[in-house]
Amino acid sequence: MPNDSIHKLLRLKFIRLRRVINRYCHPHVNLSLYQDCLRGKKGIEIGGPSMIFCDALPVYGMVDEIDCINHSSETIWCNRSVEPTAWRYSREYICDAINLSIIPDASYDFLLSSHSLEHIANPLRALTEWMRILKHGAYLLIIVPDKRFTFDHLRPVTAFSHILTDFEQNTGEDDISHLPEVVRLHDAKLDLLSKDLGSDWSNNLHTRRMHHHVFDRDLLRQICDYSGLETMRTDWINPYHIVMLAKKS
Fold first, then answer.
1. pTM
2. So what's the pLDDT on residue 30?
3. 248 — phi, psi (to 5°)?
4. How many Cα atoms occupy the beta-carbon half-sphere of 209 within 13 Å?
């Protein structure tokens, strides 16, 4: 069997295994809390659709209506073609997550963000925009990767002071200041996309593939606290998800 066929077969088996793990191996997560906060509400997702909201945190079926934001009409993320009947986006906006000027203030009851914040060069600026389009008392469900179990495991957790500096200096999404660290410490063996895309992040403004920042629970909480969010719950879900439910207070 050709190497490409073997790689695709192994990748498919890994995805299926991940689905099983996500669906059944999170006994300590209070699913009803997440679902009840979003049930019957209108919201928006940054960078969806997301596999985790189909299985480990099945919230798509709880909501009344959901829109979506993506930076491009064609992205590299394989999860965009996963189980398309699991949700129905009412509208998809093509715009940058740090500039949602096409969306009016206080438009939504909740916001979902799964593995998008680490791809954003200026997370605090993004959260400022996300907060603006949310109603008072709206919920944010944010998921970032736990670096210990991803291709970022060799990189240090980003200091909050660095992220604050990016915000104060209005760092743009074309920033590649983290590129040398990524190239030096990226573990390609744990990167499912490296076989297809290689290790070239120089066109990151188009692909948005690079992880600008590396998160742990403390950093995610610091960012949310600074943004004026009330943290309600933080969980860890197999195989590498740090999950935070927060409220616009």
1. 0.85
2. 85
3. -75, 110
4. 25
